[in-house]
Write a structure and sequence with these properties.
Elements: E1 2-6, H1 14-22, E2 28-34, E3 53-55, E4 66-69, H2 73-84, E5 89-96, H3 108-118, E6 123-128, H4 139-155, E7 161-167, E8 175-177, E9 185-193, E10 199-207, H5 216-221, E11 225-231, H6 240-247
Parallel strand pairs: 1-2, 1-5, 2-4, 5-6, 6-7, 8-11
Antiparallel strand pairs: 3-4, 7-11, 9-10
The structure holds manganese (II) ion.
Manganese (II) ion is lined by residues 8-9, 39, 95-96, 108-109.
Length: 251
C-alpha cells in the first residue's frame, strides 16, 4: 500500500509531519506538498507557468521522502501521482484550522483530497481546530486520521466520495459522522486606505459558531471528531424534472 500525503499549509508545517508519520503503519508514505502556504486556494490547478518538483530533505520528514512544489495542493497531487505513483490513497492535512461547511469549497486541504478523488483514488482530508489551542498538539488528530484511514483501507470509498475529518482542539470525546453546517464563516469586507488615499479591501471573517445539531460544526463544538462523507457529484437530480419540463425543447 502506498500513501500520498499533501497539505495546504506547506511542506514545513508541523501538521504534515504528524500526518505523514501517522500514515507509516499503512505502508509506504511519500509527501508532496506546496513550498509555501496555500490555504484557501481551493482546487486551483497551475496551467500558465511551469512547476518545479524538488526533493526536500530539510522538511524534517526523513526517512519519509518529501518533495515540494511551487504550486497548489491540487498541483502537488497531480505531479505526485505522475512522478512518484502509483498510489492507493491520498491523505491531506493535518490543516491548522477547521474546514467546515461550505468552506470546504475554498479549502486547499480538501482540494488535495478532491484531486485524489478526481484521479480515481480514495482520499481523506484532516483538519484540526487550532482556535483555542495554546500549543499545537497533533496527537488526537493523528489518531483520528489513523482510525478513519483504517476504515477506508478496509472498506474502500465510492468513486466520487472523500472523507472530511475535523478534530476539536481539546481531547475528543469520540467520533461523530455528520453533515455540513450551512455557514461557518461570516464574511466581512474591511476597507482601509493606502498612502495615496486609495481604498483597498481585506476579505476577513468571523466564525459563525451557530451549530445546527448533526453538523460538522456541532460535532466540533460538542468535543467530537467530525467525519463527513463529501460527494463530488455536484449535479442536483432533485431540480432536474422541473428544469426539464420548462427548459428542454427547441431553443
Ligand atoms: Mn491551511
Amino acid at each position: 500500500m502506498r500513501v500520498l500525503v499533501t497539505n495546504d499549509d506547506g511542506i514545513f508545517s508541523p501538521g504534515i509531519k504528524a500526518l505523514a508519520r501517522a500514515m507509516r503503519g499503512f505502508g509506504e508514505v511519500v509527501v508532496v506538498a506546496p513550498d509555501i502556504e496555500q490555504s484557501a486556494v481551493g482546487h486551483g490547478i497551475t496551467l500558465r507557468r511551469p512547476l518545479r518538483f524538488k526533493h526536500t530533505a530539510s522538511a524534517g520528514l526523513d526517512p519519509i521522502p518529501a518533495y515540494r512544489v511551487d504550486g497548489t495542493p491540487a498541483d502537488c497531487v497531480v505531479l505526485g501521482v505522475h512522478l512518484q505513483g502509483p498510489f492507493d490513497l491520498v491523505v491531506s492535512g493535518i490543516n491548522l484550522g477547521v474546514n467546515l461547511g461550505l468552506d470546504i469549497t475554498s479549502s486547499g486541504t480538501v482540494a488535495g483530497a478532491m484531486e485524489g478523488v478526481s484521479l480515481g483514488l480514495p482520499a481523506v482530508a484532516v483538519s484540526l481546530d487550532t482556535v483555542r489551542m495554546e500549543e499545537l498538539d497533533f496527537t488526537h488528530a493523528a489518531r483520528a486520521a489513523q482510525r478513519v484511514v483504517a476504515w477506508v483501507v478496509e472498506h474502500g470509498l465510492p468513486g466520487k466520495v472523500l472523507l472530511n475529518v475535523n478534530v476539536p482542539a481539546r481531547p475528543p470525546r469520540g467520533i461523530r459522522v455528520v453533515g455540513l453546517v450551512e455557514r461557518y464563516f461570516e464574511d466581512q469586507v474591511i476597507e482601509r486606505t493606502d498612502p495615496s488615499g486609495v481604498p483597498y479591501y481585506w476579505i476577513a471573517g468571523e466564525p459563525a459558531r451557530r451549530a445546527e445539531p448533526g453538523t460538522d460544526l456541532w460535532a466540533i463544538e460538542e468535543g467530537y471528531v467530525a467525519v463527513t462523507p463529501i460527494n463530488l457529484d455536484f449535479a442536483d437530480p432533485a431540480l432536474m424534472p422541473a428544469l426539464r419540463a420548462e427548459l428542454e425543447g427547441p431553443l
